[in-house]
Amino acid sequence: MTSTGTVPVSKSGLGTAILIAAAAFLFFAALTPAMQLWDRDETYYARTALEMLRTGDWLLPRFNGTVFAHKPPLMFWFIAESVSIFGENEFAYRLPSVLGQTLTLLFTFLIGRHLFSARVGHWSMIILATALMPAYLAASAQIDSLLLATITMSIWCWLALREAPGRGTALVWTTLLALAVGLMLLAKGPVGPAILSATILCTWIFGPAPARPTLTEFTGLVAAAVTGIALFLVWAIPANAASGGEMLDKGVGIHILGRAFTPMEGHGGSGVIGYLATLPVYLPVLFIGFIPWAIDLPGVLASATSTATGKPARDRRFARAVLFGWAGSTFILFTLVATKLPHYILPMFPPIAILLAALHVSRSKAPPHSQFSAGFWSKATAAALVAMQTGTAIALVALAFFLPTIAAKLASATAAVLIMGSLYFFLRLRANGKFERAHHVAAASMAAFLAIFYWGVAPEIEKFVKPMPAVEAAIAAHQLGELPIYVSGRIEPSVILAVDPPAFEAAKKIADPQAGIVELAARGEEAVVLVIQRASKKLRPEQLGNHAKIVSQQEFFDINGGGRRSQVQIVHVTDGR
Questions:
Q1: For position 222, what pLDDT does the model report?
Q2: Structural domain ending residue among the three candidates 465, 494, 529
Q3: In this structure, are 405 and 320 located in the same domain?
Q4: Which among 14, 36, 253, 296 is least buried, having the fewest CB atoms inside 10 angstroms?
């Protein structure tokens, strides 16, 4: 395999990479059942997949019986298949994300090995697996980990295509790249192809002269783009027709273009001043998301891989063009988009993990020196890391006093001690030039912290913020599961998932709870009404008449409503007889 500005692909290290990926898969799979579906999107996607599975309609996603045009169907297909094997539970809902993270780690290794060395590839896997944001999303039923797997796959296929020694090999990589493009589009529309295109363009512009596209590379990219789009249209055209144009109107018009130009659901600043004020928001998000590895972010920018792994200048320039083009284009794209959500910048994490790994490998070979030697920004980043982790530890200690069980109190306090102890040893080892040991401490302590928090702390917190399991149990205890469901208040996806109305009998909304309940009773319709509102506005039995009864009520802190104290009341409306 000849080099055209890149480092020839090493054949070493794949076995170790597979072991790291397998360990990560088992670890994140073990986290998935620990917590209920937490994020609103998780319950949206889980319920949409269930309706797809139950109706047998794999073409058109639906939520609560209506067309769900928010996203293409790839994640719903994966969740539905997972549920068909493992049943309706958190593990099944989140397994596609675990698989996505595992594949991302493997492709990140291949890219890191291609650009630097197998050792850089291994460390990039460890860094990516234990950084806070990707670790959280790996055990969450959201699209991002699956999307990231398709993006890293496409970058790897493109790098391999550029190095293809003959037409036959080029055809193989073109075919795989086309598949990656199609999967990116089916995962989250044009986001993935936009990042891939920007990365390639940056490499052509800022890379060394041999990075300019050859005829084989250019032809392969065009063929892959056309074929990938065609694969996407095989689903998109009939799905849009079946929805009466709603998939195009809402999917593109609202959830792509709308999010780009208008902050949706309060995720972003309103008006010109609000837009400008939120432009730098992803800087702290990137820092927090990369904990505990964030301390070296300034070092990556300062070194720009100039000393990483001792590669020739031309190879370093190519690696710099690929990785900074990939990360930078992602950052600029989502900084300019009006709607801001933390996980939007997840595609930045693999290239930065590779850059961090390259810096780590080069430092581990250098003479001992302080982690503060890179100047003001490194000192400021270290101080910020200390402040943030100290604040987290204090919060965990304070939380221990409010948790109801001794086991949860001990878990929260243990997590706090782990944070401070690992931070101390991490910084001390780095100060003594022992970067390898320091980074082993960081990786192991992050894995231990996640396990303790997920299994020991979060389940107790959920009792205060997640009322739906208790609501589901109350409906089953009173044998109301076969009745039509009405909801007064915001219809959260978690409500639909918990009470589980059949896909062909969607939960219906009523505006005024008292008037709606009285009207249902007057019509002689037996039903269940879930009244979701502030705790101060509880319905009283005397407000409901003779044919409606409050069978249960659960108070909680509404994390989707600013943390205010709220309640769910379950009202059984009889048929009036």
A1: 96
A2: 465
A3: no
A4: 253
